[in-house]
């Protein structure tokens, strides 16, 4: 399958979309001097699971190695930028600028938006600055900002210097908004009209204006001071008579975002109110941009993933990051956890005499500590997500905490019984079973309390519960678990 | 703040949107026989963090207790269904049907879509069947399916029996598609025209047809057999001249979903190609529905959360689930983990003689096991997400596995050194430091291997890596960790 001559009898529609309205590309059969080539059917782009195929990648590599611009264009020229982006990510670092160079003007710089950050930054460094500046100039403002924001200031200025003054100012304003804010996410191209305009005027305006936003879903209605009065979805425009004023069909009940709002809040508004697009206003309520759902789908995914990654201690790494960066990134979290492990070891160290007398405790205590950690992680995960999605607030915090404590108690009791009986059966010592069972219920309740209280406390102190709760929670369950087992045993067996 | 007479000088725009084009509701001041009431400003709906306020909830409760239909309508009648849904979720179970009853015809059943499943099912049971049937009949097909799919067949039939035959058939067809499929997610209302239609005809059709879909973003172009030829975004319609045929401006390069596709695949297509809406086709390529981005934002969030919850062993529970359901749900995962903990305890049990001679090992071995577990969890989390997002495939699997092993080796070496020196310093025994350090690097490499190999293997066997990888991975790091520490010590100190 790694042969690009492979003839696939059923070319996938995704793999070879017919040419759309994008930039024309050089057709492969454009070399009139050569004898007619045999018809080449390129390998399929993706397998049934939606993964890139090695065969397609090998074909791309082949054209890059042969510096075969026409062959490369025939292969990837019609691809969606998301697919091309994934191919670029799968290539080696030195092949990437070659691909962009071979495609020339046919390379759409919005492809860069689809790349992992480390790949994008490296590729931009490797390309001629003039090529980058020209490519970025053709983009919508939100894509341009997305690409520029990762570059250092000198590189940003070098690109922005080649822009017309108005565009430059608009991009600089977007870049002035905080990272991960609505202002960074919005596009500044939109259509705004006065409420006195008629539907006919709007349609005529759209027909006659060359420089409309690339895609739009709503018309915005503003007052003379450019303050947002409301929006009209395009389907409302289509339904209305030509003579109707947009002021009459405007939807005034519109959510808006401030440019300084965090993008996580923006994503939550989209999710809660099922929006397709959201106007962005400045501090004086003036309309300055629009965020669309297609951009937010990515944010929603990233934000939900951020909690997952934070809980596991892998931060914002991407699979294209270097070994060295990844190692450092993970080292820190492991180091913090190591301190807490030593703390737990210190607790065990207090009871060396007990362990020397009842060696079985060395095998049994980790069961109690581990089970507490697992139960606490369940509670903590639910709490972290409930906080992140704003499902928990003062109005229901008591109900939530009660529920978690009840669940911890019930599971604690169940496992106390189960483990107590198992230990009794295994070692034939009822007293040892009682010690382990007693410690189990104590630790599961402690874990449940910690699992719900620590994320809430971290949130109260304006920290990110996903990032730091885990360390504290397992510290609690480790220390309480070991202390409960060994302390109970010491007391019950009368060891001093 | 729990007094609804509270006068808030700065009413939030979210809290009191001006009346929009939704159902008219009874204004509160509609009782002409009473003397004029003092102007009542309701409390704000949400605090600055976007959480519901207790004051608003108390005000709603007050009107429900007083059976004050007009007061309740004044308070929540203009709210977005997402906000009303959240309020219903925050009420007690017995207050919910009272609220729906008091609102009467003003209650929009699309609010039910915003509720947690357990709340929705219970509320539908508590409402008069005729009310439910009437409410569901007014909904878009995707919302109706969403509500019906959780009910048992008898309840579904009771509602569907009250529908006109055509609508009933269409809903039944949607419900026949597998759970979590594109067919369940789509709405069956859409606009499809022949390619010979002109832009003017489309606009006139929209102006003259009463029964258009509630919101739409694209016109679909189909052949006489209703096979999809492509789509035209509404902004393309607005830009085009009246006389232009839609066949000339149609975008044929369109992604589609099959009705039987998993909704996770649908979400990935939206995310990858930045779509606003996606046509759904049947096995004969006929257009049968449309999925829009606003529905997918929820799916994307749920799917990313599913992995997070699966890794933590909390499944699909919602914070509104009962204590009993939650306890059972979590118990199973804890039980599986308990077995693996006993496995690790068995490993420790093999070395009781060694521990009896060197009690410090009882404190130190858990450090090695725990650190390995944490490092393996990092690797596993990255692997699980890379598999879920299709970032890892045959084309780059070797690069990915290599990277993870290198990272594990580097962090293993770092922590071997660190912990070895710490133990030497703590106990003053170089040999003990060497044992712990050696075991550490062994366990971190084993953990890295398990963290990447197990999710890949589970995926290969068509399991869900997020659900079962965690148990296996920590089993490996626990057993290897304890075995390495105690085995090395036994061998080095010559204990037999």
UniProtKB/TrEMBL annotation, chains A, B:
Stated membrane topology is: Multi-pass membrane protein
Which CDD domains does the entry mention?
A: CBS_pair_Mg_transporter
Residues crossing the lipid bilayer are 331-351, 405-427, 433-458, 470-493
User: Which GO cellular component term is one of those annotated?
Assistant: plasma membrane
> What keywords sit in the KW lines?
CBS domain, Cell membrane, Magnesium, Membrane, Metal-binding, Transmembrane, Transmembrane helix, Transport
Localization of this protein? Cell membrane; Membrane
Which Gene3D superfamilies does the record match to this protein?
Answer: CBS-domain, MgtE N-terminal domain-like, SLC41 divalent cation transporters, integral membrane domain
Give the CBS domain ranges.
250-306
Keyword Membrane on entry? yes
- Supply the Pfam families for this chain: CBS (PF00571), MgtE (PF01769), MgtE_N (PF03448)
UniProt xrefs under SMART domains: CBS (SM00116), MgtE_N (SM00924)
Record-level Gene Ontology MF annotations: magnesium ion transmembrane transporter activity; metal ion binding
State the residue spans of region: Disordered: 1-41
Q: Which domain of life is it from?
A: Bacteria
Its predominant location is: membrane
Q: Which InterPro entries does the entry mention?
A: CBS_dom, CBS_dom_sf, Mg_transptr_MgtE_intracell_dom, MgtE_N_sf, MgtE_transporter, SLC41_membr_dom, SLC41_membr_dom_sf
Sequence similarity: Belongs to the SLC41A transporter family.
Task: Report the NCBIfam families cross-referenced here.
Answer: mgtE
Query: Which PANTHER family does its entry note?
Result: MAGNESIUM TRANSPORTER MGTE (PTHR43773)
Q: What does this protein do?
A: Acts as a magnesium transporter.
Q: How does it assemble?
A: Homodimer.
Name this polypeptide is given: Magnesium transporter MgtE
Originating species: Siculibacillus lacustris
Gene behind this protein: mgtE
């Amino acid at each position: 399958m790694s042969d690009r001559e492979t003839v696939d009898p059923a070319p996938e529609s995704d793999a070879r979309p017919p040419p759309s309205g994008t930039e024309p590309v050089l057709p492969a059969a454009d070399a009139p001097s050569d004898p007619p080539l045999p018809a080449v059917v390129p390998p399929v782009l993706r397998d049934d699971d939606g993964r890139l195929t090695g065969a397609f990648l090998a074909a791309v590599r082949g054209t890059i190695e042969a510096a075969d611009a026409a062959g490369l264009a025939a292969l990837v020229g019609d691809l969606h930028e998301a697919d091309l982006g994934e191919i670029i990510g799968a290539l080696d670092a030195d092949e990437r600028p070659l691909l962009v160079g071979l495609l020339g003007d046919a390379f759409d710089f919005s492809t860069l938006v689809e790349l992992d950050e480390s790949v994008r930054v490296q590729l931009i460094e490797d390309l001629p600055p003039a090529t980058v500046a020209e490519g970025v100039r053709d983009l919508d403002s939100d894509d341009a900002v997305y690409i520029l924001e990762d570059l250092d200031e000198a590189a940003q200025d070098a690109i922005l210097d080649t822009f017309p003054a108005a565009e430059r100012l608009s991009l600089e304003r977007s870049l002035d908004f905080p990272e991960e804010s609505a202002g960074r996410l919005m596009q500044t191209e939109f259509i705004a009209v006065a409420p006195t305009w008629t539907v006919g005027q709007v349609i005529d305006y759209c027909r006659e204006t060359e420089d409309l936003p690339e895609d739009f879903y709503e018309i915005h209605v503003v007052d003379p001071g450019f303050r947002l009065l409301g929006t009209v979805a395009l389907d409302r425009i289509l339904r209305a008579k030509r003579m109707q004023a947009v002021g009459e069909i405007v939807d005034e009940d519109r959510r808006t975002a401030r440019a300084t709002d965090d993008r996580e809040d923006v994503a939550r508004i989209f999710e809660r109110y099922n929006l397709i697009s959201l106007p962005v206003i400045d501090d004086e309520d003036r309309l300055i941009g629009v965020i669309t759902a297609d951009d937010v789908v990515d944010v929603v995914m990233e934000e939900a993933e951020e909690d997952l990654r934070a809980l596991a201690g892998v931060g914002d790494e991407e699979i294209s990051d270097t070994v060295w960066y990844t190692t450092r990134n993970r080292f820190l979290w492991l180091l913090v956890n190591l301190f807490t492990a030593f703390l737990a070891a210190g607790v065990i160290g207090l009871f060396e005499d007990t362990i020397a007398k009842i060696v079985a405790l060395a095998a049994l205590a980790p069961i109690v500590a581990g089970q507490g950690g697992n139960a606490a992680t369940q509670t903590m995960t639910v709490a972290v997500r409930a906080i992140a999605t704003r499902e928990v607030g003062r109005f229901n915090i008591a109900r939530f905490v009660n529920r978690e404590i009840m669940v911890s108690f019930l599971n604690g009791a169940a496992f106390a019984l189960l483990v107590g009986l198992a230990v009794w059966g295994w070692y034939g010592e009822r007293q040892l079973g009682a010690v382990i069972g007693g410690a189990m219920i104590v630790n599961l309740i402690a874990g449940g309390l910690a699992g719900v209280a620590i994320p809430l406390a971290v949130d109260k102190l304006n920290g990110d519960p996903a990032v730091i709760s885990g360390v504290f929670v397992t510290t609690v369950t480790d220390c309480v678990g070991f202390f409960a087992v060994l302390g109970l045993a010491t007391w019950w067996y009368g060891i001093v």
